[in-house]
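Usage example:
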Amino acid sequence: MDSLLSYISQHVEMIYIVVLMIFLGIEIIGRVPSVLHTPLMSGANAIHGVVIIGAIIVMGKAETDNYLALVLGFVAVILGTLNVVGGFVVTDRMLEMFKKKK
Amino acid sequence: MGLSILTVCYLIAAVTFILGLKMLSNPATARRGNLIAAGGMALAIAGTIFLYENDGRKLGNYHWIVAGLLIGTVIGTLTAKRVKMTAMPELVSLFNGMGGACAALISIIEFQHLSHFVTSGNTTGYSNFHSTLLIIFLGLIIGSVSFAGSMIAWGKLSGKVKDFAFGGQHIINLVMLVVTLGVAGYLMYSLTPSNYFLFYLVFVLSLLYGIFFVLPIGGADMPVVISLLNSFTGVAAACGGFLYDNKAMLTGGILVGAAGTLLTILMCRAMNRSLKNVLIGSFGGSTAEAVEAGDQGPIKEISLTDAAMVMAYAKKVMIVPGYGLAVAQAQHACHELEKLLNEKDVDVQYAIHPVAGRMPGHMNVLLAEADVDYDKLLEMQDANDQFKNTDVVLVLGANDVVNPAAKTDPSSPIYGMPVLDVELAKTIIVNKRSMKPGYAGIENQLFFQPKTSMLFGDAKKVLQALLTEIKNA
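Running the assembly step on the lines above writes:
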């Protein structure tokens, strides 16, 4: 418990971000017309691909003789990149079709 | 210096994520929003590679990182460029699963790292040992559930995995979840080298939970499930933000987590299902219990020629697209029909139910691909105001979203779901492949009404045949 409390007080900025982002996320979505739900879900899907940064850090920190970490990290980087790149490209493809009309 | 620049990179990335999501919520700015978020992401990735330092040490293993990025980029781009618009929902699910797996793998590696401290009996030297372990577990469990669940959702939408439910499944799911959390909780305070294997047990249990969590849920609920898993992955990514004290990961993850959760609830509301029901996983899968249709009276079929005549001489035609249109890839034929009818001075519009197809907005995306004018797509409320002035409603492979039972039959599982009031129109022509019930697994009274006629067949073939008939008329 103490450890948790001290963690919170040390990372209070992060906790603030969490709370604010929860409200902001809800606020932003609340005004979306239903026609854009699929592209929006896809775009959000690409944005959580930011987890790739974690994969890069893990990969970069792994000792060169720690093969398990290297292999898992390598796979994590590939999967994370798939999430980011695939997500943004698919979203763009969907939105491209909307744009032609306007 | 480098680290300060990196901090600014992350700040810019976080802002682009917020801005991107915001712009994605408006048709006029959506595409730019997506590109802006992608730009921010690229900046964050490049910054991490070149500027990140851990205790004064730069990152190593560059060739591995770059190779991984290249492989991911090539495969990701090719898959995303090649996929058919109809297969979009499952692709989103697939990419979502990749993100979840990435988060889970990070947790596994960080656990490895952490366990060295435990093995050497030096956990006091590790600051915030318990909190770090908690975050590792959160990332592992949420990421794994999201990965396994997304894979099942992907398989289901692409027809590779069948609905599967057995008695007592909810209880087993619940037990599995409790055991997973229990073991994780136990390890939080009593991690020793002899019970490291329990960590991997948590991993396996989370994967199994993800599988069994999605398996019994029927296709009608798949959009809700994907949206929910999408927000799960967001939270898993945010766990990474805590692990590395990384505010870009935190912002992006929590933003998606919150937005995804709300989107999930909005979808549930549109289908009159409580999130609890979807989570526990009922109905959708129980297609076997379809109501007997024997006493509903006969159905009436209409010939292609007659259907073509009725439409060609109507003043106003409303097209109601559904999943049948998507599987038949009939959106282009549908647009052709619309243009041809327009030439004959028939007013054609589309009535779009928010959950028609397999994802919210699925129909809009498909029809947009076929160049259908954005202004011709009516949302449910506007469409419902128009049906009484409509001569012909053409239902293309939609079923549950035009089922009047949702308004009249309190015993129906979809009772209370907002539906399109197509029965107000003068004539209704329903194109379906067969009399099989839709995804909710219930009979549709609409098909037995006197002013409804059925036009059986694949949506694309039927539309093409209609086109020929109308041209010759």
